Amino acid sequence: MIEWSDTHRSIRDMVRRFVEAEIKPKVTELEHGDLPPYDILRKMFATFGMRDMGEIRAAKAQARAEKRAAARARGEDLQQEERTESGDQVAMQMLPIIELSRFCPGMVTALGVSVGLTANTIMSRGTPRQIERWAKDLLTLDKIGAWAITEPGSGSDAFGSMKATARRAEGGYRLNGNKTFITNGPYADTIVFICKLDEDNDPKDRKVLSFVLERGEKGLVQSKPLKKMGMHSSPTGELFLEDVFVPNDRLLGETEEISYRSGAKDTFTAERTGVVAMALGIIEQCLQLSVEYAKTRVQFGRPIGDFQLIQLKLAKMEVARMNVQNLVFRIIELSTEGKRMPLAEASGCKLYCAQSAMEVALEAVQLFGGNGYMAEFQVEQLARDAKVLQIYGGTDEIQISQIARSLLAG
Amino acid sequence: MKILVALKRVADPDNANKVKIPGSGDRVDTTGLEWKPNPFDEYALEAALRLTENGQQPKTRAGEVVVVTFGPKETETTLRAALATGADKAIRVDATDDQLDGDLVARALKTLVEREKPDLVVMGKQAVDGDSNQVGQILAELLDWPQATFAATIEEEAAGSVLVGREVDGGVAKLRVKLPAVVTVDLRIVAGASVYSTKTARTFKYNEGVRFAALPAIMAAKKKPLTEVKLAELAADTKLKVTYAKFQAPPARKAGIKVKDVAELVDKLQKEAKVL
Ligand SMILES: Cc1cc2nc3c(=O)[nH]c(=O)nc-3n(C[C@H](O)[C@H](O)[C@H](O)COP(=O)(O)OP(=O)(O)OC[C@H]3O[C@@H](n4cnc5c(N)ncnc54)[C@H](O)[C@@H]3O)c2cc1C
After folding, report:
1. B157, B163 in Cβ contact below 8 A?
2. Residue A52: its chain B contacts at CB < 8 A?
3. A64 and A79 housed in the same domain
4. Are A89 and A31 in contact (CB under 8 A)?
5. Are A361 and A282 in contact (CB under 8 A)?
């Protein structure tokens, strides 16, 4: 794939029309008010047949889980089937991400955590019954999901420093711990809670397990949205668990034998490639606004686009756009070929794209001068939003160390 | 019901102020403007889709919608988009804008209508580039079919007719046209309660505006039939009746004035504008 096909462009235009009509007029409310993004996202899902697609995905995941369970019952260990999507399917997911990110990267964050991270975790680890119970409603956006691993004392070293625990109890488990920076935390109906099985052993040796919690669970408190730098259209919060009792059927996979660590790589790869599409949206929008501004803003008797220092900014933005777009094409092309992107490469993509989006957005602010610092001109929002791409889903530093580790291995 | 809808792409009407007339005055220069479907044609397609479905089940088509455009290969994007929103098949008549005028388009459409045998031709009232507002009327004349222009409402009737509402000064005029017929539509046609097939309950309200295509439908549109026809196949005589002598930009408007209060406004309207 070397460029978008006509079909891809049709999708882009259709989503763009929706964004213009439904999101642009509400950006202020979403970004500066307290309008949660979920109803608009639901409308988008209904409009574009994404709700139906979600139902189909859930049904397929359930069928796969049934096959896995049957194999396990026969005593075989069915390798997790390769679950690759076609290039067009991947493009169909990325195009709305790109278009939404031009105005509201936060909406993509909220959406991605719910139908991506949370639902995917349940689909890849859950029993058929668990998938039916929770994944379907997440994939249709009927319910909102959150995925909780980060804690006040554990971020980059998520597994090592994790304090949240599960202790066996009569008929189930008792869960304790605090989670923070949890996307959708304040509003989530369905929460994947990742913690360690406390068997009075050394925390280093504890198994990592994942449970599903539901809103309103006794002992579970979901905080109000935290105040933050950007991504205001994505509510982020804390979770407090005090002796929350859950029956055995809340343990994903319903067995302590599948460690959460195994297979976590797939989640990371998916998350990182999502960031690539978000970065492209932010960069495209900043570039388009900047070109327009460079042509129309007049200083010293001519458009600022006449000045070489401004031209340098535009040229660098364009180069970033070309590179990030090519990475998007590569991700789609790999799927067309039925291949998966290795984790180290996904790390490289995420690192490069997050940094590019940040640089481009800051240069756009600079190019707009005082107007760039004002909310009205949109680039300040995109600059605040872009920053988080370098932090969540693994910080830049963590991506760098993963790339280096893979280079130096063996 | 089988419906033929004619679609045209036009230079982005929202940026019409960016078109330029070169010094030679021999053409309108639209360089830099994106191509968009003519809005009235999008409304025509929406009306045709509403007429061939039960509004509650828009995924199944009760009837057939054929879309046609006149243009070079790139205009197939417009047709594919129409197929994605629900049209069943598409025809592209290979031609460029400078080879066409309203009369020739109408004559070529006549041949297509004779081939396709639709019960109804639905068209936009005009294309927003040339604003000629002719093709629908000429086509009806050539076919010797009844016509209803500037439709604000269309209701399909059981007895092989449609009831068309047109907004006129002081109200709505209703015309009952026997099928086959030509109907051209105005903006109001995409309001919530403007178009009803015999299948759609009269209590049903559509979302205002033209519909979005579902993403899987956009993918599936690649596989729907799209055929190319040569202009000369449809019209023996391709000579144009309308030729353009010269283009000229309208004179720039003078800035307005601000008045202090109503009294001054009334005074100016009386003495200067002399409209009161
Ligand atoms: C808006 C937002 C949404 C989020 N959503 C979620 C969510 O839904 N669910 C969830 O579980 N988490 C979520 N997070 C948490 C996010 O994943 C973490 O913030 C991130 O992993 C970094 O962890 P930390 O904040 O504890 O930083 P730390 O790990 O404390 O890092 C501090 C600094 O030290 C650096 N550093 C750490 N270790 C190393 C090392 N080995 N080498 C070099 N440098 C190092 C880091 O790169 C960073 O610069 C979200 C965060 C934000 C900001």
Report:
1. yes
2. 214, 216
3. yes
4. no
5. yes
Give the C-alpha distances (Å, rounded to integers) separating B262 from B270, B271, B276.
12, 14, 14
**What interface predicted TM-score (ipTM) does this complex get?**
0.85
Point out which residues pair with A305 in neighbouring strands. Answer: none
**CA angle, residues B49, A54, A268, in degrees to nearest 5:** 135
A127 and A14 share one domain: yes
Residue ranges around ligand 1 (CB below 6 Å): A 113, 147-150, 155-156, 181-183, 231, 236, 388, 391-392, 395, 397-398, 401
Does residue A381 belong to any structural domain of this protein? yes
Domains of chain B and any CATH numbers: 2-271 (3.40.50.620)
Calpha distance B77→A15 (Å, rounded): 16
pTM of the entire structure? 0.91
Contact A143, A189 (CB under 8 A): yes
Across the interface, which of B80, B81, B215 has its CB nearest the CB of A92?
B215
Beta bridge pairs of residue B5: B67, B122
DSSP A245: E
Taking only the tens place, the pLDDT of each residue in B70-103 is 999 999 999 999 999 999 999 999 999 999 999 9
Length in residues, chain A: 410
Structure tokens that stand for A201 in this block: 């052993």
CB within 8 Å of A302: residues ≥ 6 apart: none
